[in-house]
Every structure is written in C-alpha cells, then in structure tokens.
Amino acid sequence: MIRAINVSKIFHGSSAVVEVNLDIYENEKVGVIGVHNSGKTVLLQMLAGDVKPTKGKVYLEDKRKIAYIPQVPKFIPTISVKDVMTYVNKEYHYLDFVGLDGNKKVKDLSLDEKKRLSLALSLPFSPNHLIVDDMSQISSLTKDLIRRFKGGVIIAHHNLKDIWDLIDRVIIMSKGRVVFDGPKSGLLYKVIRFKNSEIWERENENSIEIDLDKRGVKYEVIRVTPDEVFLYFYAGI
Amino acid sequence: MRFSYIFMQEFKRSIVFVFLILIALSLSLIAAQILSESISVIGIVEGSSYGIKVSGYVFDFQGKGVSSEIKLSYYNFTESVKTNNGSFYLYLPVAYIQNNTRINVIINSFQKNVNLTLTIPNSSTTFAFSSLFLKYYSSQNLSIISVKGKTFIAVDPKQENSNYTIFEINSDNVNLPLDVNFTYNNFSNTLKIPLIILLLFFFSFIDLMDYYLLSSFPRGELRQIMRLVGTIKVYVGKLIAEIPLTIMLSSLSFYLFEFILIGNDIALILPYMIASISFSLGVYGLAPFGSKNMIYYSVILGFYIVNLVIYDRYLYSLLATLLLIVGYIKLRIS
C-alpha cells in the first residue's frame, strides 16, 4: 500500500501540492486527473518516492517495488536499449516482453517506446505498483501492458476518456488539492434540459425526471461524458 | 554484480575517448621534439690589459657538444672561431677597460643563434645561457646548467685556482668546485612552462570528455537507473570507469614528454600527473551542477590547481578561488 498523509510540496514559495491524504492499495486502478499545472506530476513523483514532500509523509515499502514511468523518460541517447537494460540487469527477455528491439538506439525510440523501456527496467524487481505519468502518445501495446499489470496502477492524465477502461477509482486534482476521490461511476452524469434550464443529475438517479413528469414539463435527457463532468464540476475549483 | 555492469557500460562509453590519449601523446611528442632542439652555452670571460679571453662550451639538451661558430666583439674589434665539438676558446688582443664595459658573444649554430652581452665586473666572470634546462644558476664566480643527465659547471679561475675549467658532472651527489653560498632553491627550471602548457591541454581534454560522459547526470538520463540500483553505485561505478582513462591521458603523455627530454625521472612529472587526476576528480564532482556550469566552474578549478603547481601557495589560491565563487553566487542571488 502507498499512503500519503497530509502531503504538501512547495517550490520557490508556490504550492504545487496542498495537504493531500491518500491510501492506494495493491489491487487498485487509480486515475489522477487534472488540467495542466494541477499538481498531478508532483504528486506522482512523491508517491513514487522520487521527490520528498515539503510537509507530510509518504509511506511506501521500497522504491524499487514501484515501477514509475515518467512523463518524458530520459536515457543516454547514444547507447542501445540493451545497454540501458544492462545498467540494471541482464534479463533482456523483459525487453521482448514490452515489445522493444534491444539493438535500437535510445535516440531512435518514440516516446511510447521510452515509456515501455522505463517499465522494462522495473520489471526485474517484481513491482507491486505501476505509476504512469501521462498517457499521451501511448500505443495500444503499452495500454495493454498497463491493463495486464498485476498490482496497483496509478495513472495521471489530463482527461478521463483515454484511461477510462484502465481505472476503477478517480482522483481529481485542482490547484494542488484533491477535489474528488471516489469510484469512476461517481462521474457518470446526465443533463436534463427543459425550457431554458438544465439540471445535472447522477446517471443512477432519476428524481428530477419523476418530478418534471409530475409537473407535466417536457424535457430531454442528454448523456454527458465523464470528461464533461470533470470540466464542469471540478477542473476550475 | 550490478556494480560491475555499470562499470563495464561506462568503461565502454569512455573507451571512445582513447583518441584523446593519442592526441595528448602526439602533443607531448611534438613538444619534446621542439624543446630538444634547444642549445645552452656556459663559459668564462677574462678581461685585462693584455686582452679578452673567452672559453666555453656549447651543448644541446642531451649534453652533446654542438658544432657552431662563436664571434667575440668589443667595440670594432672582432674575433671568431668555429667548433665541431662545442668547446671553444677565443682571444682578442685588445686592452680591456674595466668597469662595466660590455662585450658581445654571438653563437651561431644549426639549431639557434644566441647573442650574449656580457659585462666583466672584475677581471673575470662566468656566464651561462640556456633556452631549456633542468637546473640553472649563474653568478660571477659560478655558473651551472643541468640538462638531460648532465650538469656543466663554470668556475672563476681566479678564485678556484684552476685554469679556465668547465666541469662536467653526471650525478647530483657532487661537491661543488667552489665554496659559494649556494642552495638547491637557487636553481630555476624552464621545463615548468611546457609542462604547464601540456597540463592545460590535458585539462581541456578532460573537460571535453566529461562534458560528453557526465552530462547524463544533470540531464537526468541516469535518474531512473539510480532510482532502481542506487545513486552510489552509479556515481562510483561511473567514476571508477573514468579514472583509468584520465590516468592514461595524463601519465602516458607526461611520461613520454619526460622520457624523450630528460630520461626516467618520474619525480619531475609526478606533480603534473597528480594535478590532472585531481582536476578530473574535481570536475566529476561539479557534474551534477549542470553541464555548462561544470565547464565554467572547471576553469576556476583549473586555475586553482595550476596555481598550486606553479607557486604552491595553497592558502592564497584557496582564498582567491573562494572569493571568485562568492562573487559569482552573489551575482546569481541578487
């Protein structure tokens, strides 16, 4: 389990993360959602044990038991993928497992391939958690690897659409604070439009429709995506 | 086990820079060849009412006599002589007027032309000139030049009661032929200058190599590896992999230089070898501060080390270096 207790991070006087409390279990698939500069990356770096919080504590068993895939993984560009792996281990079969050509030079790798190389480096340590910072330019192969990962998964991304099928729980961050933490079903809404008004209602509830039916008001129900819910309710908080 | 993997990987990367060793060796070879073309001359002049007598020996850095033509001129009177073995004796039958009247001794040889203007304060004096020497001392009644494995001494015949004698000795363990107030510190050493120039070249080679090899620290290219195998293993593994190259770069090149010019005298080049290894270690420590900063700060470090090699005034050097850094930090902060 990764536990964050009252964690804050301040850079040059400005707060990147503010008093975050989290418990993430080994079987959980968590999506950390937020707009640009909401504090997702810093929170993930703290959860991975790479950055120390300014205030609060992050409890984790062993850094090596957390496979961390940064937003932009960096490796020595002039050496081969196999050479990068050699720094850590000589178990090259992990490169085949993540679908990488060991003889390819790092400078010739795409961002997606670099992310897979990051994963391959951690696999010999049998990680319990996988932390992925940003899913942009991710291939279906990488997505599949994340899906098949046996252990807790934490994915940071700027929208829900790209990671919806990979997660069960959603944490929404805004201005460094956690503004939503719950199952992804908590972000399923519908919009009921009538006359010149609209009401947002949870998808599994229908009290508004019953009330409008009783009053004889005509209305229409519009399905909204979780991303629209995220932007409507949480993004600007 | 992983430590050896890191070492091997880094060693493989640093092997690319073997060409720098070859360039360093070539530089040493060229410098040594140019310098071994130097000539030295040592001798005695006697001026009296009977005439002016000059005797001496012209030799190269190996101590071998150099064939040359020696010309003595005093006002409009000149006398010249040719020598094949370096030894010469000239007599100009003119009355010498004492008290700082000058005479000119011109030595023309294949390697170099030397023009010496000598003043004879009393009736006689010794003189010495050398474009490259290991040890040099010259005064009125004693002149000493040490070159590769040989030391030549000229003494005033009036004081030593010997007749225009130039001594040659082959060992440091020798009693000087004259009782003069002389200590080892009176010697100067021209080899310091080419050695310092070579040292500066090697500093720049180390900087070049480190910019390529160590930039991976500030660029974060090893961060993930350090996260998994530990910072200390990567830091030390990389350092140990780089050290053989640095040692080869400095020791081989300095040794070649010294071997061609002087022979087997490690003591002379040891401070320079230690200086370049110290520089390499220092630059390694600066690497995490950023690739460009590493190069900028290495200039200060290089200045500090060269200062120590030349003057051995470590407290002044340390103070000056600290003030330089303080000024820079102040500018950055304000």
Q: What is the number of independent domains of chain B?
A: 2
Rough shape of chain A? elongated
- As residue ranges, the low-confidence spans of chain B are 171-175
Q: Rg of chain A from C-alpha positions?
A: 21 Å
Helix content of chain B: 40-55%
| Mean of all residue-level pLDDT scores of chain A | 92
Distance between the termini of chain A: 29 Å
The helicity of chain A comes to 25-40%
Describe the main β-sheet of chain A briefly: 6 strands, mixed
**What percent strand of chain B?**
15-25%
Number of domains of chain A: 2
Q: Please work out how many helical segments of chain A DSSP would assign.
A: 7
CATH architecture of the largest domain in chain A: 3-Layer(aba) Sandwich
Q: How far is the N terminus from the C terminus of chain B?
A: 48 Å
What can you tell me about this protein's structure?
The complex is a heterodimer of chains A (237) and B (334). Chain A has 237 residues and is an alpha/beta fold. Chain A has 2 domains: 185 residues, P-loop containing nucleotide triphosphate hydrolases (Rossmann fold, 3-Layer(aba) Sandwich), CATH 3.40.50.300; 46 residues, no CATH class. Helices cover 25% and strands 32% of the residues of chain A. Chain A has 7 helices and 12 strands. Chain A has a 6-stranded mixed β-sheet with strand order 5-6-7-3-8-9, with helices on both faces. In chain A, strand 10 and strand 11 form a beta hairpin. Chain A starts with a strand and ends with a helix. The model of chain A has no long low-confidence stretch (mean pLDDT 92). In chain B, a hairpin with a 3-residue loop joins strand 9 and strand 10. In chain B, the strands form 3 sheets. Chain B has a 4-stranded antiparallel β-sheet with strand order 5-2-1-8, with no helix packed on it. A 4-stranded antiparallel β-sheet of chain B has the order 4-3-6-7, with no helix packed on it. Chain B has a 4-stranded antiparallel β-sheet with strand order 9-10-11-12. In chain B, helix 4 runs antiparallel to helix 6 and helix 6 runs antiparallel to helix 7. Chain B folds into 2 domains: 181 residues; 142 residues, no CATH class. Chain B is an alpha+beta fold and 334 residues long. Chain B is elongated and about 90 Å long. Chain B has 9 helices and 12 strands. The longest helix of chain B has 31 residues. Chains A and B meet through helix 2 and helix 4 of A and helix 1 and helix 5 of B.
